[in-house]
Write a structure and sequence with these properties.
Layout: H1 3-20, H2 30-37, H3 41-47, H4 51-76, H5 91-97, H6 99-105, H7 113-130, H8 139-162, H9 169-180
Helix pairs in contact: 1-2, 1-4, 4-5, 4-7, 5-9, 7-8
Organism: Paenibacillus solani
Keywords: DNA-binding
GO molecular function, one term: DNA binding
Length: about 180
C-alpha cells in the first residue's frame, strides 16, 4: 500500500481517537475529523463514505490483532494449556499497543456501545476457539461459560486501565498465569 495512504489512515485514526474522548461517534463530523487529521474533505471521501467507516476500519484492525494475540499461545502449545508460559501470552501486549483505543472503551464517560462491541467481539473469538474442542456442555451452558470467561478477561483489562497501565505486559502475563493455574 502507498505510504501516503497509510499515513492518511493513521492520521484519521489518531484524530478519531482524540475526538472520541470528547464526544460520541455519531456527533463527529467529517469536517472536524478531516481538519484535525490535517487532510482535506476530498481526501477523506477518497477513502471513506462517513466517519463510521474510519471507526470500522480501525476496529477491524484492532480485532484482527486481538484475535492473533488470543490464538498465539494456543498455537504455540498445540492447545495444551499445561505447556503455557507467561511469555507466550500476547493479549496485554495487544492492549498496550492499542491503549489509546482501550482507554476510550473503558472510560466511564464514554457510551457503553464500544465496551459492548469489544465484549461481543472477544466472546465471538472465544466461541470460535472452543467450538473446535469437545466440551460436554449444552448450548446454554456454553453461552454462560463464554460470557464468564469474556468478562474475566475484560475485567483484568479494565483493572489494568484503571491503574493507568502501570505494570508491564510481562507482569500482567504472570498474573494471568497464576489465575489460570489456581485450583
Amino acid at each position: 500500500m502507498d505510504l501516503r495512504i497509510i499515513k492518511t489512515h493513521e492520521r484519521l485514526q489518531q484524530a478519531l481517537l482524540i475526538l472520541l474522548k470528547e464526544k460520541s461517534l455519531n456527533e463527529i463530523s467529517i469536517a472536524e475529523l478531516s481538519r484535525l487529521a490535517k487532510i482535506n474533505r476530498g481526501t477523506f471521501y477518497l477513502h471513506y463514505k462517513n466517519v463510521h467507516g474510519v471507526f470500522e476500519r480501525y476496529f477491524s484492525e484492532i480485532v484482527e490483532d486481538l484475535k492473533r494475540s488470543f490464538e498465539l499461545p494456543y498455537d504455540l502449545t498445540n492447545h495444551n494449556i499445561e505447556q503455557l508460559q507467561p511469555e507466550m501470552i500476547q493479549i496485554f501486549d495487544h492492549v498496550q499497543k492499542y491503549n489509546s483505543f482501550y482507554r476510550i472503551v473503558f472510560d466511564e464517560k464514554v457510551p457503553l456501545i464500544y465496551y459492548k462491541q469489544l465484549f461481543h467481539t472477544l466472546r465471538s473469538i472465544m466461541k470460535e476457539f472452543v467450538q473446535g474442542h469437545s466440551l460436554n456442555l449444552t448450548d446454554l451452558q456454553l453461552d454462560y461459560l463464554l460470557s464468564y470467561q469474556t468478562n474475566a478477561i475484560i475485567g483484568i483489562l479494565m483493572q489494568w486501565d484503571e491503574n493507568d497501565y502501570d505494570l508491564p505486559p510481562q507482569t500482567m502475563n504472570e498474573f494471568l498465569m497464576s489465575y489460570i493455574r489456581m485450583k
